[in-house]
Specification:
three-stranded antiparallel beta sheet; 43% helix; 18 strands; mainly alpha
């Protein structure tokens, strides 16, 4: 009798364990692998105080830890957006966060000025990246030179995304530490909370609906992960970031009992209401813009679902379309995601309408791991098994090409294509962003 009872208990245990595993988005083994790889990539991306990088870029003289976009020789500066996009891994200490938050605040533009190349840096702008040797802010992509920054091919205004990521840096730090008094700390004579407000309002926006926009003559890069493309008109991706920033800024203002928190909640609500009608096509994809490069944008569509902007039938349409694209083979390769579906390329020679890179290279048609988690989250709304398949495909490729094997292995790469092209090994957001999303789904 005791033996029968023991067998029954074992069967219940096995069934329960299997059921729990079936209910998880990804297996505990795969989650553990991704967490371990993310920790290792993050460590490879750290630049310790005083650490010498190279004769061209010098040592980290900022007085604290910096986190660059990846390991080895890729991007030897402190990039605001890549760092901010990796915060929610939970692997960055409070001390590290505080240093990079205050460094970013200290390099915010406090006086509008025009570069030698003819670009404008408005007051309130946040740097694209910050040099490690002398802490000089570089507000534009394409250079490490403070004196020669800002030429029209990279926009006549700084990228629009960094201002909103700066707000996220402050929000995450305050939420994690409970230290809302930091918001009242003066940085170069201006309170941090006032710097956050200034950053929020730096990118140009439509006065009626707060949607970020650009013109042919006055243009900022909409998002740094496609800074080599020309995108104009009303802009979807930075408006999605602005929606989150408005919500976060409202919460920070509430913590210090500021009366204008309601203003930012209203801005967030207006953006959320405006986005689908302005950008969604008949299939459920959000267009990148209403001007040049007015193309269905995978990253914007997935992120709008991930941030909870789309709801009801709009959410279902967007998620179903991404699921269909995955099944059709037009969305991804080895679990990595294109900016544009292969069926939506502008023409035979380019994915985006106007690009500084060749077709199927870099941001113009290569495949990226950074948005994989957002896409999985969206597909999971309508087809959980299909979302799991995409996630597992992504992780299996990381395992197969894991840089820790040595030699020519380099995953996680920034991006790659179906040929031999691979861009920047040991890239942080390629694992940090999916990890955060997979945890959210789990």
């Amino acid at each position: 009798m005791k033996c029968i009872k023991l067998v029954l208990i074992c069967l219940v245990f096995v069934f329960s364990a299997g059921h729990a595993q079936q209910g998880s988005f990804i297996s505990s083994e795969n989650l553990s692998f991704l967490e371990g790889m993310t920790k290792d990539v993050l460590e490879a991306s750290r630049i310790y105080p005083g650490q010498f990088i190279s004769k061209d870029f010098g040592s980290n003289n900022t007085g604290g830890m910096l986190i660059r976009p990846g390991g080895r020789d890729a991007y030897p500066s402190f990039w605001i957006r890549d760092y901010a996009m990796s915060l929610e891994t939970g692997f960055i200490s409070k001390k590290e966060q505080l240093h990079m938050l205050l460094l970013t605040a200290s390099t915010q533009c406090d006086q509008t000025w025009i570069t030698k190349g003819g670009s404008l840096i408005p007051s309130g702008s946040i740097a694209d990246h910050i040099r490690i040797d002398d802490s000089k802010p570089i507000y534009f992509p394409g250079t490490y030179s403070y004196e020669n920054q800002g030429t029209p091919e990279w926009g006549t205004l700084p990228p629009y995304c960094d201002q909103f990521y700066f707000i996220h840096m402050a929000y995450y730090y305050v939420k994690q530490t409970g230290d809302h008094k930091i918001l009242l700390k003066e940085v170069n004579g201006t309170r941090l909370i006032d710097r956050l407000r200034a950053a929020f309002h730096a990118p140009p926006a439509n006065v009626n609906n707060h949607i970020v926009y650009a013109t042919d003559a006055i243009r900022g890069v909409d998002f740094g992960f496609r800074d080599a493309q020309v995108i104009t008109g009303n802009l979807c991706f930075p408006s999605i970031l602005k929606y989150r920033a408005a919500s976060e800024l409202a919460e920070l203002l509430q913590l210090i009992k500021s009366k204008d928190s309601k203003t930012y909640l209203e801005i967030a609500g207006t953006i959320r209401q405006s986005l689908p009608g302005m950008f969604m096509d008949e299939r459920g994809m959000l267009l990148a813009s209403t001007g040049k490069s007015k193309q269905a944008d995978v990253w914007s569509t997935a992120l709008s679902v991930y941030y909870g902007i789309l709801e009801g039938e709009d959410l279902q349409k967007a998620s179903r379309m991404l699921a269909k694209a995955y099944k059709d083979g037009t969305l991804s390769y080895k679990g990595n995601i294109r900016h544009i579906l292969t069926t939506d390329d502008y023409n035979e020679t380019t994915a985006w309408e106007i690009s500084l890179s060749g077709k199927n290279l870099y941001q113009n048609g290569a495949y990226w791991g950074t948005p994989t988690g957002w896409v999985c989250y969206a597909i999971n709304q309508v087809d959980p098994q299909l979302a799991k398949a995409l996630a597992n495909e992504f992780i299996e490729d990381l395992k197969a090409n894991d840089y820790r094997k040595g030699g020519d292995f380099g995953a996680p790469y920034e991006c790659f294509n179906k040929s031999t092209y691979k861009q920047n090994p040991i890239y942080l957001t390629t694992v940090a962003c999916p990890l955060t999303a997979f945890r959210k789904i789990n």
